Structure prediction request, 153 residues.
Amino acid sequence: MKHSRVELLSSGLKSPNCRLEALRLKSCWLSEISCSALISALKSNIHLRHLNLSGNALQDSGVELLRDLLESPDCRLETLRLRNCSLSEINCSALASALKSNIHLRELDLRENYLQDSDVKLLSDLRESPDSRLEALRIGGKTTRANIQKTWL
Prediction:
């Protein structure tokens, strides 16, 4: 997606009149600059509940920005899809860190990222934490779901 288009989208997302609840930017070739502008705009949008950035090579800087978004007290995201985003071990640690403080996220999709066993364990342990509200974690072709007691189904 061209940077000028992301700037236009970002300005719309920053508008106090914006009530967008779902944003799907799957395989849009987001650049580092575009990702930065987008995430910055999303920080000011309190209505967004579902975000799909699948198929974009977010790189470490993009995931760091997402971490900042997820850690924001105004973030109300319930679903985050990062399928096939070339996530690294560093990225998973940043996401896990952010999810510890996010009380709204219910579903996280990280399939097709070829995560290491340590990444999977870190995220699975987080999902099992009593403080986590994460109900569905999709990793490596598997979906783990939690019921109210956070037990494996």
In short: Confidence is low (pLDDT under 50) at residues 147-153. The chain has five helices and six strands. Strands lie at 22-24, 50-52, 79-81, 107-109, 136-139, 142-145. The radius of gyration is 15 Å.
